């Protein structure tokens, strides 16, 4: 009798240890289950991510298979992408902007991915104005279940509604705090971000909150902005993925050194040229690959990005 119960318990533990369909089942640094539930197969996307995909596995144990696309030396294996699309919400550091002299990372990230990118970022906007001017609403109408949404704000939130009309938000992390901008009710970054995240989640999209990009650290020594910490907090409180874009990119700048980094900022200490946009895009990719279970990781077709290591 005891033996039967022990066997049943062990079997139950084995079943519970398996990843569900669409769940992660492997990759560098992965410490979770490496087998999939019956009816799915563990498929390698790249060195950093394997995923349980619906397949012909009839039992409880799977072997990892690999599906390869591309022949270039820096192109790795990847899962079938289906019809997923990546949508971006952010400010000028993400946006397409003006040509090569002034470009956000969203203009460059597509070449590292196997899914299309829709860059909805708008220069000069904050989480508040992106909400008030209807940009989030436009995105909601297009995003579908299975799509990935990256939201990155922070550069334009500061100053409060009095010091930064139209863009500034209320201080703090409360969802109920309000302040006033010439008679208009204003909320916190947390409130605007939480509302946006929950709306995308309700449509079945996979949301990633990204911390803002750093200013040129060799010209701006003001330290880490409060909205970097806020981004991580709001991601945690809404149970969505987080990418520490700020610190991954700052690490890359430090490796490049002052001269090379300064060349990426031809106009000011915030906005990069196209080369800088590419450096920033690579840093975000690395951050996504290093974050266990990040929904962007399955769609990375080129993992040879800098910085080369996780933080």
Automatic annotation (TrEMBL):
Annotated signal peptide: 1-17
Q: Which GO terms describe its cellular component?
A: extracellular region
Protein name (Swiss-Prot/TrEMBL): Carbohydrate esterase family 12 protein
Q: Which residues form the CBM1 domain?
A: 17-53
Asked if the Swiss-Prot or TrEMBL record annotates the protein with the keyword Transferase, the reply is: no
Q: Which UniProt keywords apply?
A: Hydrolase, Signal
Q: Which domain of life is it from?
A: Eukaryota
The record's GO molecular-function terms, alphabetically, read: cellulose binding; hydrolase activity
Task: Respond yes or no to whether keyword Protease is given for this record.
Answer: no
Task: Read off the Gene3D superfamilies from this record.
Answer: SGNH hydrolase
According to its UniProt record, which protein family does this protein belong to? Belongs to the 'GDSL' lipolytic enzyme family.
Against SUPFAM superfamilies, the record matches this protein to: Cellulose-binding domain, SGNH hydrolase
The Gene Ontology biological process terms listed for this entry are: carbohydrate metabolic process
Among InterPro entries, the record links this protein to: CBD (IPR000254), CBD_sf (IPR035971), RhgT-like (IPR037459), SGNH_hydro (IPR013830), SGNH_hydro_sf (IPR036514)
């Amino acid at each position: 009798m005891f033996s039967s119960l022990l066997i049943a318990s062990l079997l139950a533990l084995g079943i519970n240890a398996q990843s569900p369909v669409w769940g992660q089942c492997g990759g560098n640094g992965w410490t979770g289950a490496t087998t999939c539930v019956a009816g799915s197969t563990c498929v390698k996307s790249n060195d950093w991510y394997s995923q349980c995909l619906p397949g012909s596995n009839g039992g409880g144990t799977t072997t990892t298979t690999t599906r390869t696309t591309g022949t270039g030396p820096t192109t790795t294996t990847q899962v079938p992408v289906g019809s997923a699309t990546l949508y971006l919400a952010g400010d000028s550091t993400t946006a397409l902007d003006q040509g090569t002299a002034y470009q956000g990372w969203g203009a460059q990230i597509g070449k590292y991915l196997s899914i299309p990118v829709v860059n909805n970022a708008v220069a000069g906007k904050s989480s508040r104005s992106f909400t008030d001017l209807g940009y989030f609403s436009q995105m909601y109408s297009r995003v579908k279940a299975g799509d990935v949404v990256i939201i990155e704000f922070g550069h334009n939130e500061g100053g409060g509604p009095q010091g930064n009309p139209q863009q500034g938000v209320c201080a703090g992390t409360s969802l109920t705090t309000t302040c006033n901008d010439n008679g208009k009710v204003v909320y916190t970054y947390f409130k605007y971000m939480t509302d946006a995240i929950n709306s995308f989640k309700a449509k079945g999209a996979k949301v990633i909150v990204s911390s803002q990009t750093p200013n040129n650290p060799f010209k701006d020594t003001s330290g880490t902005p409060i909205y970097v910490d806020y981004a991580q907090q709001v991601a945690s409180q809404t149970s969505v993925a987080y990418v520490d874009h700020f610190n991954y990119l700052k690490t890359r700048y430090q490796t490049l050194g002052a001269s090379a980094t300064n060349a990426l900022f031809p106009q000011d200490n915030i906005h990069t040229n196209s080369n800088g946009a590419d450096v920033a895009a690579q840093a975000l990719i690395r951050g996504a690959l290093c974050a266990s279970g990040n929904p962007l990781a399955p769609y990375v077709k080129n993992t040879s990005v800098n910085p080369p290591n996780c933080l």
